[in-house]
Amino acid sequence: MSQRFGLRSCALACTALLFSIGLAAQESGPADPRRAPESSLHRAFSVPGGAALEPLKCRPSAKPAPQVARPAEGGPAPAGSQEEELPLTQEQERELLTQAPPPPSRDELRQNLPHEDWIKQLHQQLRQASGSGLARIGIWGGSHMAAEFFVSELRRPMQTRYGAGGAGHINLLYGSLGIRLPAKALCRQGRWQHELAPRPADSTPQAVGLGLFALSSREAGAAIEFDPTGSQGAVRTVTVHYLRQEGAGVLDVLVDGELVESIDTSGASAVGSIRISAAQAIGRIKLVASDERGVTLLGAFAEDTQGLVLDNFGIAGASGNFWTNARADLLGQALGQRPYHLVVLAYGTNDVTGAQWDPAQYRARFEATLESMRRVQPSAMCLLITPGDRASRSQVRSQIRGKDGKMRRVVRTRYDLKTFTLRHMQTAQIQREVGARHQCVTWDMSLAMRQAGGAYALMKKSPPWMAGDLIHLTPLGYQEMAKSLLQWLRL
After folding, report:
1. Which one-letter DSSP state was computed for residue 257?
2. Edge-to-edge strand order for the sheet containing 381-385?
3. 100, 181, 254, 336, 379 from 339: Cα distances, Å
4. In which band, very low, low, confident or very high, does the pLDDT at 61 lie, cut at 50, 70 and 90?
């Protein structure tokens, strides 16, 4: 293994700097030659950067099980199938569309407009913060955000106006369903296990980071390696958050293939940070759990020293209840190190699903979500993105006699364009009312989608804006909805 950066040669001349952000220094653990002596909770390192590296390629994992080809929702049955999909006739489709709620009225559109004073204050804060440092925006939500199509469409014009501040949050859960990265690549090696803040309302608060997750190694040598370069170019600063806890192990930090330091992560429960700054672009960060005691990572962030950075914390299946079930003390510590000028919450789809839904219970849960968010981010500006329009479908199988007299097995698709559309409209109203009490403004994505035709019509567009499940959008649909929000934000 390579020697530490600061000891390799005078040419590298990398100085490890210790700093504290008002938290107690970490206690010394059992004697271990790999541990950095008297390591503190927050550490900063300077490295040269600029190394010429081959593109990061992940080692293949175990061979995946073969996937059975399935037809797209509403599409034809696969070749060789004994079932035949019967599409709707034009008359049936016209009848179906009459069941959908009408397009939004002028009053609805007018109510959805933002307050001019709020828009002016937002742009003033972003302009001032990006002029002398970093303006930070954090987006929390479910699969609509995790897919990155919506968020990246926001990031580009924002960074064009206020400066490219880097890729932002690099989701260490990459590889999980529906999560994409704003950076070039991320590879995991060895066994890791992630924990999310629990969904049930009465759960014990979980030790998680800003992304409302924690990722823990399960064997010595388990590693995460990533290229932090974003679409806007090189990155010169990377920050890693980890969980300090009793009995935890040592985390090796390598930059561009060179060992910078071995960090002792044992001690009283707290959020620790490792900040790496480079004179030139950073090409590679590798985090290695050096022993079987394990380490727990809470997040990684790539940014420059000036401009706007947008952190995407979207996780497929996420719930607003995550906020109520995360340890507020740890979130407060993490936010003390990484405060946000604008907090964006995009929840609802996963919280209002199911055959039965109680609006009063949802109102109480969403109130608790915003109370939890405001407990740790009392002064940040706040934007709520409601769930978009949604429809549901079911399939009915039967047999019919063909013109040749033979029986055929057929599948008919039945659509419900009313239940979830009305539910999401009510959800948006609840979010608007509850949000106003917590100084949050609301952008109604369900209204924007209904204005464009509604979920079913968007699925039928060519090319389609809506995915076949009638819940998620296509990449084009997410981009179009993001453009609608950008116009709403005067961007």
Report:
1. T
2. 307-312, 134-141, 342-346, 381-385, 440-443
3. 43, 21, 26, 6, 10
4. low
